[in-house]
Amino acid sequence: MNWPTAAGSDSRPDPDSEYWDERQETRPPGERRDEIIEKIGEQVRYAYDNSEFYREFYSDVDVDPRNITSFEEFEQLPILSSDDIKQEQKEHPPFGRFLCIDEEDIARIYGTSGTTGRPKVFGIGQDDWDRIGEWHAQILWSVGLRPDDRVIITSPFIQYLGSWGALAGVDHLGCTTFPFGAGMEGQTEQAVEWIADLQPDALYGTPSYALYLGETAEERGHDPAEDFDFKVMFFSGEPGASVPSTRRQIETMFDCEVVDQGSMAEMTPWMSNSGCRHLENGMHVWNDIVYTELLDPDTEESLEYGAEGVPTYTHLERTSQPMIRYWSGDITTWERHDETDCECGRTYPTLPKGIYGRADDMLVIRGKNIFPSQIEDQLHALDDYGDEFRIVVEREGALDSLQLVVEVADDAETGPDEFHDLVRQEIKSEVGVTPDVTVVKQGELDRTQFKADRVKDKRELAIDV
Ligand code: 8LE
Question: Of 198, 226, 292, 318, which is the most buried if we count CB atoms within 10 A?
Fold first, then answer.
């Protein structure tokens, strides 16, 4: 087998074709697994031969990292965590000894975009970047994009790999790209006018930004459905596009298809989790592009279809900074392709509810496990919801309290008291804990131009909301 595959092909299918590569996308899963394990073998051997980090990391394993031939052997390799990356990059700055190419051969440097702690650094070689563009183009084809489409990218062009990864795919597919960005003062108002003038066919961003954009458009007298006329919006970065009521709200507000995508920046090509134009909700797992396991959060054992666990990712053709068995810390469930009600005919597993949270975002309040995305789902389903909320968790004596600050819509038909009681009741029936609810006017809470940050857990942090 040729490993890695040659990058740089410009060939594209016929625009009427459903598939970029029909054989690859629709083959029997068993056949695909044979290819995946071969690629895993090559990837692990390559990392072992070229990275001092992996040689050290695998020094105690009972299998030969230069000759992995089965999934059973592969599953004996240790799990790599985000802390391992941070520690390694601290000790061997800036890239860590994951880097398997010479520093001078790095074509692009990206990083994590968080504001606290040492950022993680990603060095990507040109071949890897070219392959990322091709894979993203292939996946965007399944989303319904075609070369004659015009696509606006409305997430920040910072170190964030979401924007750049989307751009790489859209460029490779041959669309007209409009890398607009986000995050500057006044940029959302400008985005509204640019979109109304230029009429892009598709938009990429975060779901919370889409709602903010739609709200801003309405404030400026536009109807986003009529005046923008998007065919499809594709999202990554946070839950939302697979939170049923949020998804419906975006679909209705913009009258277009919504597609959820995204794994993690480390795992770029991060579009390897992606909905397609036929999927009702959730994402297919393109596991011959990035191999994905679902592991038990406690035992790290591999889980069957139907179970809930942590997606753990392995690059299959990465020469610059490969990640092998990388623990995402996210929570999801998965199912076999033929259990999914999707007409597309692809034979990948599916995450029917998307990624609904990070294990460390899960709030445990009075013994109940609560994901912020569950609360989001309930609120978006209320007609008079004003589109933004905050969660505050506090310890009062021995008991934890769940406090919600919720906006009521300007044109609400219910009064604030009635809305308050409705929110209390709906949330209690969903999560089993009665929240203290504060109702505020629409627009009172800050909107995000990037990823929403809606939770303050004051049990751990003594900070003001
Ligand atoms: C639910 C995938 C990308 C580049 O958009 C991104 O956000 O990468 P990043 O900044 O490394 O953040 C990764 C984390 O964002 C994931 O671990 C997960 O918690 C969250 N995330 C990304 N996409 C989704 C998501 N959560 N649904 C998604 N579609």
Answer: 318
